[in-house]
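Notebook B, p. 112. Complex prediction, attempt 2.
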Amino acid sequence: MRVHLGGHLNWYDAQKRAWLDVHIGDALSLEQLLQQLGVPAEEVGVAALNGSVIELESASVSDADRLELYPPVSGGSS
Amino acid sequence: MLYGTTGKILHIDLNTSTWTVEELGEATYRLYPGAKALAAYVLLRDLPPHTEPLGPDNILVLANGVLTGAPLSTATRFTAAARSPLTGGYGESEAGGFWGPELKFAGFEAITLRGRAEHPVYIWIKDGKVEIRDARHLWGREPHEAQETIRGELGDKLIRVLQIGAGGENKVRYAALTNDLRHFNGRTGMGAVMGSKNVKAIAVRGSGKYLDLTHDSKTVSNLGKQLARRVKDHPQAWDLQDKGTPGIVAGLNASGILPTRNFRAGAFEGVDNLRWEAYEKELLTARRSCYACAIRCKREVEVHDRYEVSNQYGGPEYEAVSGFGSNCGIDDLQAVAKANELCGRYTLDAISTANVIAFAMECFEHGLIGPYDTEGLDLSFGNAPAMLQAIEWIAHRHGIGNLLAEGVKRASEFIGGEAKFFALHVKGQELPMHDPRGKVGVGLGYAVSETGADHLVAFHDPVVANPNSLMFKSVAPLGITDALPPRELSEKKVRNYFIMESWSSAGKVTGLCYFGPAPRSFIEAQEMTDAVRAVTGWDVMIQELQQVGERAINLARVFNMREGFSRKDDVLPERLYTPSEAGALAGVAMDRVAFAQALTQLYAHKGWDADTGKPTRERLRALGIEWAADAMETQSI
């Protein structure tokens, strides 16, 4: 899947990448994916899955998705 | 002994080409330790109410903060203030760069300009010495030419030049000041005020050292080194260095709050051409800094393609990307960069200029202005060449540009009909590119701000939405205990707003950039306080700085009350009460009843009268400025 770490979220990536191609195999919850990427969930202000804003707690993702993550300073989800 | 400041205000009378120096006492300086606080104090003290903003009797104040010039990242800012030609109320704008620190090194904490010179002049200040010089040969010249000429005439390439371009000379009501060509006091028309005084520029050079002014130079120096080292280790500070403000475009779009086509929508179909990745690829040539700042958030751009964009005037900030981009329906980043360059070249406030053009585009769409008014120019949303032409016309007050140079409030009143619904302003100042429908506290800020709509009067709601986030943890020392969703408009949100507004104001007063203090960035509240303690030797606590911030706001509020402003002016434009048309917040509007209720609650926190919006004598007394209550009562309409 394609993942965007917007704003200061790509600071958490060792290579400071803004866009990552991630192979996850089976579907994951979004929180599991964040753990895998090393991005603290509390630093995510808004998440958009395939262009639509989603709730962090209830979302799951798969390899076919495009996920964009942004910190609170860029906006907010609710 | 007064530390952290030269304690001197230079008062220049342009009518007589003379000047005097006022020495500040410590008690006065502790109440008004620079910048916004000092400027508002001087204006309220010296400027009679109802002074014509563009007449000779207006006073332009340029004032440093107590930390301005310190070897601390983001301690670079100075305030420009006067009665605003845009709003008729308290006008104020801060800029970073190098000019403020250099003024302090030259021996002055602040300058006031009074009267009007007989012909264009520039002012030369070096190490306490002042000279008023002929500038007739500079009038009409662009800032890069004027700066080069002044430096050449005075024989020093390191002279810092604060100046106006065509916008200020032609008294565009939202003309800016620029220093070093890339740093702007953008808002409320301070460039027009300087132009009205026939002052082209103020050149400064000093050999003073900030640390020589401080009470505890070792602590200040160590803190500066700590902060500089921390930039790369702090996610937000690093992000400001990496992307700068243009980095927030895509996130706001995803959140449904990227102003689009004059705030009709909060998401833009062309956003992929405006987002940071496109900016970096298409525009960016370098990252630049203000004085002694390790963040280096300023972008340098250069383009030789669809447009020619010079690298002399700095790259577009987020406000320009959204303002000339999505809010004008334009997805060409090179055109955005060109528009931003023109604003720098002509010293126009990019926020107001972009907003004015979006207004004109909506009027054009509705037939309120037509090709006859625009000399055939097709001012449709999305027409980038027309946008650039409009900027030229505004700066030179040509054709319809003469009307648009008046700002959206006056232009809408002239056009009439439904044009007023397309005029996005508060108190006459155009909205910045932040949509309160998705962050309601920003709406409170727009409404109560003494300068009209301003996005920097408080920190934005999302930064304190998650109780576990770095940002939320950083505001605990300020007394914020409740993490609240960005769109919640509750009494708790009002309390959060009040606390953050005072802290934001304290940052301005001390001379720190908005991108210094937490929660927006990396300087913790206690560190900011420690810096003021070390510089001044005062036993200052966080609470005193909060009060300093609140005091400055109240001085400016009293200034406005004296001019006849009241609660009726603390209102948002109608568009924000209509549903956003597209994006994640499609269908969402501000709640009029809830907003009015929140405003009343905010007045209660501020100690302002619920009906009139006037600061009460009791609150002004508690803030140590009861004299301001007397001024309000004796001098109001």
